[in-house]
Amino acid sequence: MKKLLAVLTIVCCFGVTAAFAVDGGEYYKKHCAACHRDGSESSKAGGDVVLKGQTAKEIEMKLTGYKDGTYGGAKKRTMERVAGKLAPEEIQALADYIGSL
Ligand code: HEC
Question: How far does the centroid of ligand 1 lie from the alpha carbon of residue 36, in Å?
Fold first, then answer.
C-alpha cells in the first residue's frame, strides 16, 4: 500500500510539474519547510498553523490572500513577504502539493 502511494505521488508530482513547470514539493522543501516543517505539525516559526489536512483550494485562497492583503492573522507580515514573491502558477503548485499531504 505504501509503495502504491509512493508511485501515485510520483505520478501526481510529475503531472503537476508538466502542467505548471513548477514542482510544488521541491519548492515547499526549499522555501516553506524551514518554518512549516513537513506541514503536519504546528510550530512557533510557522505561526502555529497546521497545513496538512487543508484542501488545495483553501491553501490557494490563503496564499493569494496573503499576497493581496485580504487574509492573515497576527503574524501575517511573515507570510505576506513569502507569498508576495509567488507567481500564480507557483501558488497553484504549492496548493496542490499541500492539499495532497
Ligand atoms: C519565516 C517562516 C515562514 C516561511 C518560510 C513560510 N511560512 Fe507560511 N506561515 C508562517 C507564519 C508565521 C504563519 C501565520 C501567519 C498569520 O498569522 O497569518 C504562516 C501561515 C501560512 C498559511 C496559512 C495557514 C492557515 O491555515 O491560516 C499558509 C497556507 C502558509 N503559511 C503556507 C506557506 C507556504 C506555501 C510557504 C512557502 C512558500 C510558507 N508558508 C513559508 C511562517 C512561514
Answer: 7
Say if residues 39 and 101 touch (Cβ distance below 8 Å).
yes
For residue range 32-85, list pLDDT tens digits in order: 999 999 999 999 999 999 999 999 999 999 999 999 999 999 999 999 999 999
Residue in 89, 85, 94, 87 with CA at minimum distance from that of residue 20 = 89
Is any atom of ligand 1 closer than 6 Å to the C-beta of 91?
Answer: no
What fold characterizes domain 2-99? Cytochrome Bc1 Complex; Chain D, domain 2 (1.10.760)
Sketch the domain layout of the chain as residue ranges: 2-99
